[in-house]
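Section 3.1: Structural characterization of target chains.
Under the original work plan, the team committed to producing a structural model for every single-chain target entering the pipeline before any wet-lab resources were allocated. The record below documents one such target. The sequence was received from the expression subgroup and is listed exactly as submitted; it comprises 92 residues.
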Amino acid sequence: MSMGTTRSIDRELLVRLLSESVGLEEDTDLAGDDADTPLVELGYDSLALLHVAGRIEADFGLILPDDAVTEDSTLAGLLESLQRAERAEGPL
């Protein structure tokens, strides 16, 4: 996906980006119960989270604030930060 696309980042796409980054355990359910679990507890280290943030910036032109990508980051929190970034930037 290239910058300038009109597709916004929804939960499904964010889960796919995270999965492609390091993979997921079989019992991980980011769409459900695990959405509020810190991502480091699900196997994502800070390097993986920075990789995902860099990919989002490169592919979508959205820059996540530094405090959005921490050891306390959750899927729900990242999604909220992305939605704020999209509103601030206007249409992708």
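The longest helix spans residues 46-60.
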